[in-house]
Amino acid sequence: MAHAVARTVAPKPTLKKWNSTRHHRCYRAHAVSSSAEEPVRVHGASLPSFDWVPEDAAALRLCEPASAPLRVAVLLSGGVDSSVALSLLQAAGHECVAFYLQIWFQEDFRNTWDACPWEEDLRVAEAVCARTGTALETVALTEAYWDLVVKDSVEEIRKGRTPNPDVLCNSRVKFGAFREWLAKTHPGRFDRVASGHYAAVERDDVTGDAKLVMSGDSFKDQTYFLADLSQEQLRSVMFPVGGMPKAEIRQLAQSAELPNAGRKDSQGICFLGKVKFSEFIAEHLGEMPGDIIEVESGTVLGKHRAYWFHTIGQRSGLFLHGGPWYVAGKDCVNNIVYVTRDYYSLDKARNKFTVAGFNWISGVEPPLESIENLRVKVRHGEKIYPCTSFTFGAVNGERVSDVVIDEDDQGLAPGQYAVFYDGEECLGCGKILEPNVGAIGLTRQATA
């Protein structure tokens, strides 16, 4: 017998807004003049020239060396990828200024008071600029980051969806709000904005149109995170390291004697730093306990803290005996998390989903229904699925598509980005819609 559920709507929690006026002892302003009339300086110290060039000139192939000198604003994070990108651009003969984007805002979390990750990143960025003879400016985009990325991401989580803040960060902040800031503070000064992303840009010499192409490292490829860029944004960007595997980038960093050549890659959601995801969500959405119910039997197995702490296919955080248990679906209206021990064996297709809210990088909807080598990623990583069927339609006047991939994906969930490819070219993206495509067994239970 199906489990009877009272149709009581869960209360909407209050979303906390970041307090930009509160003093944060992790914050300090670092900005230096990068005027062409003044010597290049970082914190008052004159910098030496940088005469390094890579042994293999092919390393400069994504730096547009034939167009040098371009005036390039380089997004410098303190990581090895952006540092090598800066070094290659300098070697290609471009005029570079480095910019560190300060978006850290978690001053309310006690576990970050004594260890501010962004300050360490900034110190490394300063050292890289000292080595490469590059001026460095710090740009405070904390409020823009909250309004354009964090706020939307938290709201999506509240609705039971699985957002990707890094996709929004690239289109709305790094190549959005930052470009607007450049236009306001340095009007007409820069020809390109460069970063250390693992992606490549191919340009049409006649029209100037740009294509986003997968990188030379399939594991590290970041076109998934860049699929929400517009044609206007892509035309003005450069990804100097995009055609290289990680090992080659490390070798270049060592060859250039960069101070962070051996530094580990950063992990996790960009705005969280050392804060745990569950702690962040608890801070901004609170807790709302509800039932954990087994799909097959309708048995209440325990209580969850709130449905927004769980995502489809998740095993951790359920704290149930007799597992392993997997999250099979969520009822966000009644605050129920459904689980199963037979996630991989229940007879429920996980190869179909519906997508809407498209962004096409070219600015024009491509003929996806007729592309022979159409492929799709539903998350960052190497895994990419051939599309066996792609059909456009409309729901309530909105352009949507039904997508079928060539095998099951165990973690499809609403809010995820589906990113489409024609061979190696990234065409753009859309968001996976409700109903909860990963909610195995729920239809069978409802009709039992």
Tell me briefly what this model is.
This protein has 9 helices and 19 strands.
Describe this structure in words.
By secondary structure, the protein is an alpha+beta fold. Helices cover 22% and strands 23% of the residues. It folds into 3 domains: 41-255, 3-Layer(aba) Sandwich (Rossmann fold), CATH 3.40.50.620; 287-340, SH3 type barrels (Roll), CATH 2.30.30.280; 352-446, Elongation Factor Tu (Ef-tu), domain 3 (Beta Barrel). It contains 9 helices and 19 strands. Helix 1 crosses helix 7 and helix 3 runs antiparallel to helix 4.
How does the SSE layout of this entry go?
Layout: E1 41-42, E2 45-46, E3 71-75, H1 80-91, E4 95-102, H2 117-132, E5 135-140, H3 142-158, H4 165-185, E6 192-194, E7 200-203, E8 210-213, H5 223-226, H6 231-235, E9 237-238, H7 246-255, H8 277-285, E10 290-294, E11 300-304, E12 326-331, E13 336-340, E14 352-360, E15 374-377, E16 385-395, E17 398-405, E18 417-422, E19 425-432, H9 442-446
Parallel strand pairs: 3-4, 3-6, 4-5, 6-9, 10-13
Antiparallel strand pairs: 1-2, 7-8, 8-19, 10-11, 12-13, 14-17, 14-19, 15-16, 15-18, 16-17, 18-19
Helix pairs in contact: 1-7, 3-4
Largest sheet: 6 strands, antiparallel, barrel
Low-confidence stretches: 1-10, 17-44, 106-115, 436-448
How many whole angstroms does the radius of gyration measure? Answer: 24 Å
Q: Helix segment count? A: 9
With strands numbered from the N-terminus, the spatial order across the biggest sheet is 14-17-16-15-18-19
Under CATH, the topology of the largest domain can be stated as Rossmann fold
State the total count of DSSP E strands: 19
Overall tally of domains: 3
Instruction: Describe the global form.
Output: globular
SSE ordering? EEEHEHEHHEEEHHEHHEEEEEEEEEEH
CATH architecture designation of the largest domain = 3-Layer(aba) Sandwich
Mean pLDDT equals: 83
Given helix and strand content, the structural type is: alpha+beta
Distance between the termini: 6 Å
Q: State the CATH class of the largest domain.
A: Alpha Beta
